[in-house]
Design goal:
alpha+beta; 9 helices; single chain; 4-stranded antiparallel sheet; disordered N terminus
Length: 416
């Protein structure tokens, strides 16, 4: 561990005053451009080539596996050698780092690799740099990384690479979709990070999830995004549509953009190659009723199931309203659940995850089991990943794949 000499306090005060003054000027002149009121207001040139990924909500100890610089706001304060550990503690609105016998205090700290573009901390590798900040008395860990490098850490977590080049055009299509998704998150971010590293946004695994072929797909589509009327398109994707994608207005949005309406996934569904194209779940009656009670749809478990009625389906085949008639010794009670919430209420057989889709038939057997026979996996909106893979295998290119799932859109280059 090597410590750098600090600047003089007087010099630091002058710099700090000047720095805050510049920040005030910057906010006054630039803040309105970051408050986007709608997609039509967004210029393809008006973006920053950096993504902030929240890696951890709270951390207290950090181990570096490579040599890194510790940076306090604008100044390198220490060189931390590989295999060293340090503690980091929130103190009021600042952070305290205890590194051996030395203590450092700052509102924000960064780690940057000394000799390598990859930083290796807590047994994980990341590109870019690591930021620590105190938010609400917890040490938040953020990976600040270039947009293209971020995508390389997403690709294999969201799409299978396949054998040889069979999935390559699908990977390119997905790279464009994922880049567009990330860009929209950057545009709309109003907090200290842009993206979460899990299914709430896009699953991000850092360097160790990279693959040569998926990296190539990112490189060959560098800067390409999906647009509609010269602005970034709203992008969704899912595993397996089951024959038809779903209109976004039925799941996510109040608007009904033409490029997010239901489309047929080929005369013979492209995604029929998916292991989740057809599926079945079986639950006991008792477990099914418990899940309704957990969702506050009934106040107790003292019921049996009289019958199921599918009141309506969307044109895609997915259920819009499922009505369940519950019976006890006193009365029969109807309970309704709607759309995509059906998946999170009923859940899968184990109860550890949501139901694969809401495109299914449901029945109760003579031995009082609930059998759900369904098609597809995911919400069904936008890009069908297994459908994209099948199209790639059949010889279609990434442009054809994207225009199939997002009709009316265009692929454009950032900064054009």
């Amino acid at each position: 561990m090597f410590l750098f000499k600090s600047k003089s306090y007087q010099k630091f005060q002058i710099f700090q005053i000047a720095f805050y003054f510049l920040i005030i000027l910057f906010i006054a002149s630039c803040a309105p451009s970051k408050r986007f009121t709608g997609y039509k207001d967004r210029s393809l040139k008006d973006y920053k080539n950096e993504v902030r990924v929240l890696l951890a909500d709270s951390i207290s100890e950090v181990k570096t596996e490579t040599d890194v610089y510790l940076i306090s706001e604008d100044e390198k304060v220490a060189l931390i050698k590989a295999a060293n550990k340090f503690r980091i503690t929130p103190v009021y609105e600042s952070l305290l780092i205890q590194l051996g016998s030395k203590n450092f205090n700052s509102k924000v700290f960064y780690l940057e690799s000394v000799n390598d573009p990859i930083i290796f901390i807590n047994n994980k590798k990341y590109r870019g740099r690591i930021k620590f900040i105190n938010i609400g008395g917890q040490v938040k860990v953020i990976n600040q990384i270039g947009l293209e490098d971020y995508l390389k850490g997403v690709m294999t977590k969201e799409m299978p690479v396949g054998n040889g080049n069979e999935n390559f055009e699908a990977l390119k299509a997905f790279a464009i979709a994922a880049r567009t998704y990330a860009l929209n998150k950057i545009y709309s971010s109003q907090t200290y990070f842009d993206l979460l590293p899990d299914v709430r946004d896009q699953v991000y695994g850092g360097v160790e999830s990279e693959h040569a072929l998926s990296n190539k797909a990112v490189d060959e589509t560098r800067g390409m995004i999906l647009t509609y009327k010269n602005a970034p398109a709203i992008v969704f994707y899912h595993s397996t549509c089951g024959g038809y994608t779903e209109s976004a207005v039925n799941v996510f949005t109040k608007d009904d953009p033409e490029y997010l309406r239901s489309v047929k996934d080929g005369d013979i569904a492209y995604c029929s190659i998916s292991p989740n194209f057809n599926w079945r779940e079986t639950l006991t009656e008792k477990e099914f009723i418990k899940r309704l009670a957990d969702a506050k749809l009934t106040t107790n478990n003292d019921y049996s199931i009289e019958k199921f009625i599918i009141k309506s389906r969307f044109p895609s085949g997915r259920i819009n309203e499922l009505e369940i008639y519950l019976k006890n010794k006193n009365d029969i009670k109807p309970v309704s659940i709607f759309g995509n919430q059906i998946r999170s209420i009923i859940k899968n057989q184990s109860g550890n995850g949501i139901l694969r889709s809401n495109n299914f038939i449901i029945e109760i057997t003579s031995d009082r089991n609930i059998v759900i026979t369904g098609k597809g996996s995911g919400h069904g909106v936008g890009l069908c990943q297994w459908g994209a893979i099948a199209q790639s295998k059949s010889g279609k290119n990434h442009k054809e794949i994207l225009l199939h799932y997002f009709p009316g859109t265009e692929i454009k280059q950032l900064n054009d």
